[in-house]
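To whoever is on call:

I kicked off a structure prediction for a single chain this morning and the downstream step that reads the tokens threw a length-mismatch warning. I double-checked the sequence; it's 41 residues and nothing unusual in it as far as I can see. Pasting both halves so you can look.
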Amino acid sequence: MLGHLTRFDVRGLTASPPTLEELFLRHYGADDGPAEVDAAR
């Protein structure tokens, strides 16, 4: 992957973990309605 990016003069790549807010939204959904509960729990 990095070999491919260097062809486009990419000199750095920064990755950061998701924020707590992003984790909650991903898990519970971004809508204001009730989240669906997995029946296996």
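Update from on-call: the warning came from a stale cache, not from the record. Cleared it. Sanity check on the structure: The helical segments are 2-6, 20-28.
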